[in-house]
Sequence to fold (113 residues):
Amino acid sequence: MSKFKEKVLSEISFAMVDDAPDLQKLYDKVAAIDEHPELNDNQKIVFDFLKNEFKRNDLQYTLWSFTEDVYERLEIGVSSLPYVKAWGKLKEKQHFEVLAAFAQWGLEQEEAE
Fold:
């Protein structure tokens, strides 16, 4: 859980001392918020590649390898790699969303250690 979400839930819990039903509803809604945006199929392909590559290598290599594969193959217009095809089908905003999801996942891995 993010520090921001923890703080919001803590503040709501503190305010719930007055037993306000509206605050309980708000607390339940905030607690149910998924911190990861829903990724589409192409984003999931890219996300899974990044996670798996990171598990085998370090972050620097993962980013370099991904960038190298994507831009070399998209430049020549030929690729049989699923994550390169998937990346090519994404819009700019979707690129940021999948990279943000990967970054969040990476932070969670660090916090777990």
Observations:
- The chain has a mean pLDDT of 81.
